[in-house]
Specification:
Elements (H helix, E strand, L loop, with lengths): L5 H18 L13 H11 L6 E5 L5 H10 L2 E6 L2 H13 L6 E5 L12 E4 L5 H14 L5 E5 L10 E3 L2 E5 L14
Parallel strand pairs: 1-2, 1-4, 2-3, 4-5
Antiparallel strand pairs: 5-7, 6-7
Bound molecules: S-adenosylmethionine.
């Protein structure tokens, strides 16, 4: 019997890793695209992130955003991600960069995480109107008035952004929910 050369195994493993990076998200019903470095810097500016604040990335992917924000702004970051492979990679990078005190990853659906302590939230999620609508309702229910949300690429319907720059939309949680928000269903 022929043994498989190590180089073939390595090539196949590399190809599988690349394929998972781009397509693995579809296993979890969600695609994956990273936020680029310029946008990460803009998000920090938009949210005026300073030491002592808390930052959430809902759908944190491989952790680029939470790691960069923790390193550059010295704030406490929480990433929520449902894909276990992405969570494993992010945890590995957090340890490698010695950011265990600053960054925490929660492996969960974003709809299963309580957002009442979230002061600054970033999302780069989906063009599904329903997901964005459900998320907006959850944030209105749980987050405190005045807390900030930045969405990259996808706008929230029926919620006017405070500021728009390129594909970044900055929102504030209002004092009172919007009139169309049916509290009976919340
Ligand atoms: C477009 S990527 C953004 C990644 C990261 N925020 C960044 O900016 O680099 C969206 C991520 O959200 C995750 N995601 C989508 N829906 C989710 C859900 N309901 N709960 C948890 N994670 C979710 C996907 O697995 C994917 O990693």
């Amino acid at each position: 019997m022929h043994s498989i050369p190590l180089i073939s195994i390595l090539i196949w493993a590399f190809a599988a890793a690349i394929a998972y990076y781009f397509l693995g998200g579809f296993l979890w019903g969600a695609g994956y695209a990273p936020t680029n470095r310029t946008e990460i810097e803009k998000v920090a500016r938009f949210l005026d992130l300073k030491e002592g604040k808390t930052f959430y990335d809902l759908g944190s992917g491989y952790g680029r955003m939470v790691i960069a924000i923790a390193q550059n702004c010295n704030v406490n970051c929480i990433g929520v991600e449902m894909d276990p492979v992405k969570c494993w990679w992010t945890t590995f990078m957090i340890k490698r960069k010695k950011l265990e005190d600053k960054v925490k990853i929660i492996q969960s659906n974003i709809f299963g995480v309580n957002l009442s302590e979230a002061e600054n939230v970033f999302v780069f999620l989906s063009n599904s109107t329903q997901i964005m609508k459900n998320l907006r309702e959850k944030m209105f229910r749980e987050m405190k008035p005045g807390a900030h949300v930045v969405s990259y690429v996808h706008r929230f319907e029926d919620w006017t952004p405070e500021k728009v720059e390129g594909s970044l939309y900055l929102y504030s949680i209002p004092e009172h929910p919007l009139p169309d928000l049916n509290r009976a269903t919340l």
